[in-house]
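We treat protein structure as text, and this decision shapes the records that our systems exchange. Because each token names a local backbone shape, the row as a whole describes the fold. For reference, a complete record is included directly beneath this paragraph.
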Amino acid sequence: MKYSKPYIIFTLLVWLPWGLVCVFNTDIILEIIGVTSIHPTGNTDVRVMYGGVQFAVGLMAALALHDRRHFERLLWTLAFLGSSMAISRFYGVVVDGSGTVYTWGVLAYEAFAGASAIGWLMLLPRLQAQQESNTGDREG
């Protein structure tokens, strides 16, 4: 579990700041990605879907950093979101022809987030059992 802290910090640094930027400055989404809205309701939706969701994942990472009991919840979130976002983005690249440097970079990160979380989830029971046996050895 010694590598969980850097993983959580990295996750926090990726999701939380970008989420906050997108909540408070939708113009940056237009500048970087090219997404905008023509209606105030659309702007609110952009804030929520680009900012709010990513801010929430960042907050989950902050909670897991503070209390490791929440690490597994963070992993499940990243496994589902990262994988779903990567699959959706790849589909968009294929059907929309949106293969920009930004798109490929974000796709790579989303795939990493999903795959690494799934890897952690597969290893977690073994790591927890090992940690418990080490604790038992010290007590005995």
In short: The CA atoms of residues 110 and 118 lie 12 Å apart.
